[in-house]
Design the sequence.
């Protein structure tokens, strides 16, 4: 009898544990309705707090109507903003003027550092008037955006949303920290003034099926769009099936711009500022002033990482007092800040040798294999931030002012199966596809012909029609 009771007790405990474990696998969710709260911010905060405390998601469920927003709404972790899926649209209409009166405005939705698990779905974001760019190009980073993020954040999804008359749908700040797991899909931007997204130091980004459109742009002076989207120091990226279209006489400046960032460890953040593992495929780009797809280096990055050699051994070099060409660099390095990055002799003895950095001290680099020619005091070196492992495939690019596709400082890049037509660059040495090294001669008062090599790249099966450039494909190393 005692054995029987023991078996029942064990079985009962097992059932409790089983259902407890199952419940942890099923994320808890609870709906919250703005009409039940004094303010929309109260509703969002309550939903977030519930989501965090229950290890689930608090869902703010909007009814199909227009909500007026006069200042930024702060999103906490574990919250979802859910607009109407069917029927009448949910609209958040911003009525403030950040440039003149609302100095605290940093985004209709603000996501501060270390927030996680946030979804924004099926919402249209409108403004009564277009946002203000402020003082020239630099002003776009302070203007009106829909979602403003301060890195690091993680697991952010923006799906089926629309931004009308804003500077951008999404902008991230704080390049010294990595964000991880961002998805922006099936969204639309109409008459955005600067770009669709401006995203920096982010890993695992899925940017897909978005539409970026400038309508009724009659001339160049009315053109606001700087680029379809700007990506700086991003890794493991899918940029797929997006459309950029500018109607009228104006143009976007670039279609998709990928650019390296300054050395992050020297700024107190993480190592590595290159763009790595990019898939740029199936996109349609129409009417740009310059390149359709450009993978660009940062000039500040290149020269900040340059230095003259004081001495070299079979597998090391020691730099001069300042780790930067001329006066542009940083005096000392953080230990191992360049580990696993590419290193090249860009001038002088040993020119063109490429190595991987295995370690560094405050002034000395150790490389992965011995030098063929040991550098000396005539040598200039740079730690490079190549863009590595890139696929640019099956894109359709129409009516660009410069090259349709321009990957610079790349290795392991494949440019395949793209269709390009009506490239209008009439410069004597312009090309539709350009894979080049930076032109740095004379940039700092010298004329040394410094070298950054491209390597292990493929260009194949591309179609160029109605070409007005002088050159179809140009590769310079």
Sequence:
């Amino acid at each position: 009898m005692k054995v029987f009771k023991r078996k029942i007790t064990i079985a009962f405990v097992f059932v409790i544990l089983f259902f407890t474990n199952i419940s942890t696998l099923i994320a808890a969710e609870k709906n919250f309705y703005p009409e039940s709260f004094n303010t929309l911010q109260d509703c969002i905060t309550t939903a977030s707090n519930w989501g965090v405390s229950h290890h689930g998601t608090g869902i703010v469920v909007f009814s199909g109507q227009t909500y007026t927003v006069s200042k930024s709404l702060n999103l906490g972790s574990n919250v979802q903003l859910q607009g109407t899926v069917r029927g009448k649209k949910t609209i958040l209409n911003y009525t403030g003027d950040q440039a003149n009166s609302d100095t605290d405005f940093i985004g209709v939705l603000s996501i501060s550092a270390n927030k996680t698990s946030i979804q924004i779905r099926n919402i249209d974001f409108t403004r009564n008037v277009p946002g203000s760019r402020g003082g020239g190009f630099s002003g776009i980073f302070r203007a009106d955006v829909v979602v403003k993020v301060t890195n690091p954040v993680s697991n952010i999804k923006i799906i089926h949303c629309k931004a009308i008359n804003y500077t951008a749908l999404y902008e991230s700040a704080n390049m010294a920290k990595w964000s991880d797991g961002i998805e922006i899909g099936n969204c639309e931007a109409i008459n955005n003034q600067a770009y669709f997204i401006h995203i920096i130091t982010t890993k695992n980004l899925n940017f897909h099926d978005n539409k970026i459109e400038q309508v009724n742009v009659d001339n160049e002076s009315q053109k606001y769009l700087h680029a379809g989207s700007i990506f700086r120091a991003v890794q493991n990226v899918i940029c797929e099936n997006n459309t950029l279209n500018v109607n009228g006489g104006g143009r976007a400046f670039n279609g998709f711009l990928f650019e390296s960032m300054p050395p992050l460890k020297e700024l107190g953040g993480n190592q590595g500022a290159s763009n790595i593992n990019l898939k740029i495929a199936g996109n349609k780009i129409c009417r740009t002033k310059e390149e359709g797809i450009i993978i660009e280096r940062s000039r500040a990055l290149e020269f900040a990482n340059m230095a003259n050699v004081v001495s070299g051994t079979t597998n090391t070099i020691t730099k001069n007092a300042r780790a930067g060409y001329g006066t542009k660099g940083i005096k000392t390095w953080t230990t191992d800040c360049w580990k696993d990055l590419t290193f090249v002799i860009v001038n002088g003895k040993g020119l063109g040798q490429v190595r991987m950095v295995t370690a560094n001290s405050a002034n000395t680099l150790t490389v992965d294999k011995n030098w063929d020619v040991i550098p000396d005091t005539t040598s200039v070196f740079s730690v490079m931030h190549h863009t590595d492992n890139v696929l640019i495939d099956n894109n359709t690019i129409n009516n660009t002012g410069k090259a349709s596709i321009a990957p610079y400082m790349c290795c392991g890049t494949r440019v395949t199966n793209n269709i390009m037509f009506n490239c209008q660059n009439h410069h004597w040495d312009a090309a539709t596809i350009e894979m080049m090294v930076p032109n740095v001669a004379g940039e700092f008062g010298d004329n040394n012909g410094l070298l950054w090599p491209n390597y292990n790249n493929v260009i194949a099966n591309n179609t160029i029609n109605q070409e007005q450039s002088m050159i179809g494909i140009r590769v310079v190393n």
User: Anything to note?
Assistant: The two ends are 86 Å apart (CA to CA). DSSP finds three helices and 38 strands in the chain. The mean pLDDT is 77. The longest strand covers residues 227-240.
